[in-house]
Specification:
Layout (H helix, E strand, L loop, with lengths): L15 H4 L12 H15 L26 H11 L8 H11 L3 H4 L1
Helix pairs in contact: 2-3, 3-4
Length: 110
């Protein structure tokens, strides 16, 4: 699992210190940026321990204008990588994903 609705996310109390606080540096460009960062950080830190309960329907008829630009996934991955311990920064999962997400077929990877 890689993508989820961050408005309805729940984290184990032992995981929360690794995931939070949200990184809001992308908010001026896109309000989705913090969510994309949360998705990717959850994937890298806990990718074999994520679960999803999908039996939920939500309707929000009142969307307002907000920054909805595009944040390149390689930028998010590099940011996350810069915050992990030095011994993990060159791990294959980071280098491979940066290369894939920078390519034309990144959508297939998602």
């Amino acid at each position: 699992m890689l993508r989820f609705d961050e408005c309805f996310a729940a984290f184990h109390n032992k995981a929360i210190g690794h995931i939070m606080p949200l990184d809001l540096q992308y908010d001026a460009q896109s309000w989705w940026g913090a969510g994309e960062y949360l998705h990717m950080k959850s994937y890298y830190y806990f990718h074999r321990q994520l679960a999803r309960y999908t039996l939920m329907t939500v309707h929000n008829p009142e969307h307002k204008e907000y920054p909805s630009g595009f944040i390149p996934y390689p930028d998010i991955i590099k940011n996350i990588r810069s915050h992990v311990s030095e011994s993990y920064r060159n791990a294959t999962i980071f280098t491979q994903d940066i290369k894939i997400m920078a390519g034309q077929d990144w959508g297939k990877h998602m």
